[in-house]
Amino acid sequence: CQRYGRKYNNTPLIYWSGEWSGKFVIEVADNGYSVTIYGLYFENKPQQISRHHTHLPRKGFYINEIRRKGTSHFKKNKLHDIMLINLSLRDDFNITTYLSPIYE
Fold first, then answer.
1. Contact 56/46 with Cβ under 8 angstroms?
2. How many Cα atoms within 13 Å fall on the side-chain side of residue 47?
3. Angle at Cα 91 formed by Cα 87 and Cα 92, nearest 5°?
4. CA-CA 20 to 30 A from 19: which of 13, 34, 48, 57?
5. Do residues 15 and 81 lie in contact, with contact meaning Cβ atoms separated by under 8 Å?
6. What is the pLDDT of residue 100?
7. What is the pLDDT of residue 52?
8. Residues in a beta bridge with 38
9. Residue 9 pLDDT more than 70?
10. By CB neighbour count within 10 A (0-12 exposed, 13-18 middle, 19+ buried), where does 32 fall?
11. Strand, coil or helix: what is 34?
12. Which residue blocks in 9-93 are alpha helix, DSSP H?
């Protein structure tokens, strides 16, 4: 999160300490590739924030976290978080990072 200019106090814990799982499909074309990610699931472990107070664990599908209940519209207050995960996943799936110089 810090790499993308986010601060701990204004970013949900699922982005700082969450464990993520999901599925993806890579489609390769002549001059590039695209990655489609689906079934993204997060799980947070309990966080001790003070001696007598603990954040409860959270888990669930990411789409349910960012979408208004019963609709296909995103929650307005989640747009910055959607951009954060978009940048993070874009960097994680940058194939050129893993190619040897021969293939570039």
1. yes
2. 11
3. 115
4. 34
5. yes
6. 55
7. 63
8. 23
9. yes
10. exposed
11. strand
12. 13-17, 62-66, 79-92
Torsion from C-alpha of 54, 60, 65, 69, nearest 10 degrees? -120
The 3-state DSSP composition of the chain as helix, strand, coil percent (nearest 5) reads 35, 35, 30
Average pLDDT rounded to a whole number, residues 67-95: 84
pLDDT digits over 16-55, tens only?
777 889 999 988 888 888 888 899 998 887 766 666 666 6
Token duo for residue 44: 């947070």
Contact 82, 65 (CB under 8 A): no
Question: Helices in the chain by DSSP H: which ranges?
Answer: 13-17, 62-66, 79-92
Are the C-beta atoms of residues 93 and 15 closer than 8 Å to each other? no
Rounded to two decimals, the pTM is 0.66
Which residue is associated with the tokens 């990655």? Answer: 35
Residue type, 74: F
For residue 8, give the 3-state DSSP assignment: helix
Q: Which residue has the tokens 């954040």?
A: 55
